[in-house]
From TrEMBL:
One of its GO terms (molecular function) is iron-sulfur cluster binding. InterPro entries: 2Fe-2S_ferredoxin-like_sf, 2Fe-2S_ferredoxin-type, Beta-grasp_dom_sf. Gene3D superfamilies: 3.10.20.30. This is Na(+)-translocating NADH-quinone reductase subunit F. Residues 2-95 form the 2Fe-2S ferredoxin-type domain.
Amino acid sequence: MPKLTVEGVGQFDVPAGKRLVKALVEEAGTDQLHACGGKSRCTTCRVHFVDGEPKQITEAEAETLRVREVTDSGVRLSCQIACDHDMTVELISRLEGSGRSDQGSPVADEIEPEPVWKDK
């Protein structure tokens, strides 16, 4: 079972293959945003990888980051990442202080859209 460490929150066991955005909310109990419901249409689910950044990226994530001009090293969309190894992240997009009324739309168990993987 992969270990997810969330800076300032703690360390959590996560079922292998679970979407990072869901693990941040369900296992870690954080207020991670996910406005588009985990479909890689926005960038509200951004996290910064401190350790364990995946070596692959979905085409949808790469395109969303490009279009939204998110170029910071280690910043990824948690909705497009499966927890398949140990990782340490720092939360960037949280409900607290966002002015939003909720974290976002429900997130499916599987990565959406259908992932097409490429090397980062």
